[in-house]
Amino acid sequence: MRTCLESSVPPIYLDHAATTPVDPRVVEAMLPYVREGWGNPSSVYAHGRRARRALDDARDRVANVLGARASEIVFTGCGTESDNLAIKGAAMAARDLTGARHIVTTTVEHHAVLHTVEWLQRHLGFEATFVRVDGWGRVDPAAVADAVRDDTALVSVMLANNEVGTLQPVAEVVAAVKARNPRVLVHTDAVQAGGLIPLDVEALNVDLLALSGHKFYAPKGVGVLYARRGTPLLAQLSGGGQERGWRSGTENVPYVAGLAEAFDLAYADLEGRSAHATRLRDRLIHGVLEGVPDATLTGHPSERMPNSASFAIKGADGESLLLNLDQEGICASSGSACSAGSIEVSHVLRAMGVPDAIARGSLRLTTGSETTDADVDRLLAVLPGIVERVRSAVLTG
Ligand code: PLP
After folding, report:
1. pTM given for the model
2. Angle formed by the axes of helices 253-268 and 46-66, to 10°?
3. Atom 14 in ligand 1: residue holding the nearest Cα
């Protein structure tokens, strides 16, 4: 037996929604700015100008993929920061400008969104409506629009769910929301979608869109916020006024250069990457549903991320599944976690109406560019036995 980290045999990594390895080509794109191009992009001399050029180039490349203007791209420290800047920045600016004090979001957002909205409720007196989803985790655009009030500042609906992979009809949400109240801004957390599905800010028509480099083969610690020209946004970091005043702090040039390279690489071969991920995802879905009795697919059957296979396995608990998979050298993920001796069930599955007893056995397998058929074969070979062991431990435990 081997575990994900303790063996010389490379682990089978089926957790790309958690993070991705850094593409060696991305490392190569970063190294010149770690080694000799380490100048401060705000400096006027050649060292600084070189770093500034790298930043400008990265901004152009990211904007180009998104169909945006370079001036609409803000580099941040992570997806969480992008979500915070979008939500707090837009809510506070709207409050200052119009007295707006209401936010609409959904019950299945990542905590980077949910906890930010809750922070605004607790500390600044905002009110929030959390729109419910159906059994597949999808929101109804009409229900989102119905939640919009005259004093709504912002709507935040994620593009792809991190636990079950369900895609939200964001363009339809924007159309319905703007028809109800054209002043309302719409933000989408596209952190899971980045690098695997088309992201065109004109087609989506969102005002704000968050991305994170480490989900598409760039390193952790760098993110993007797209903010449509003219969007009122209150900066959350004050200081030297970098990033057009939206995000003070000396820019992380090597990481930004790496993010732009990774983003370009992903979108240069979007069809190929997506087709590869989808084929392996579908093998996982069919194999698990056939091989594991009482396993159900969670999330939408077709409107889902190309790389995401997620399940609820009745009578098993997610954490034990992960530990047993780890013993086989397979890295996976679960929405349920053991906390203070009891199993905490994912807020996403609960919001989808999955009974707690079943949601406890959640398992997420997410494929990536380097995932192979042999990886899928191995997972499908060991999972039924693991589930049987975990189920009998639950019964006797
Ligand atoms: N939003 C979603 C949907 C995510 O899946 C994640 C990370 O898993 C984040 C936001 C946070 O991104 P980061 O890890 O870059 O802070």
Report:
1. 0.96
2. 30
3. 79
